[in-house]
Amino acid sequence: MALNVSLVSAEEEVWAGEASLVVAKTILGEIGFMPGHEPVLAILAEGQVRITQPDGTKVVADAQDGFLSFEADVVTIVAGNAALVA
Prior knowledge:
Layout: E1 3-8, E2 13-19, E3 21-26, E4 29-33, E5 40-44, E6 47-52, E7 58-71, E8 74-84
Parallel strand pairs: 1-8
Antiparallel strand pairs: 1-2, 3-4, 3-6, 5-7, 6-7, 7-8
């Protein structure tokens, strides 16, 4: 089972796809999501979003000013500013 992830900024969709793990920074600290996690709605803090795809490939993005939600294995991250890290 995989997570369905969508990371969007105010201007565009930054990344979307499947993942086995997503770690993001909230105003209360870092939080990680794996399939089956309890529902969450949190305020995004400035920091990195780290996405591990099912094949082990990692995607990293800088994000700030927004929120994230998790429900039914769907992770949605909406940031005022977000960009993939090269």
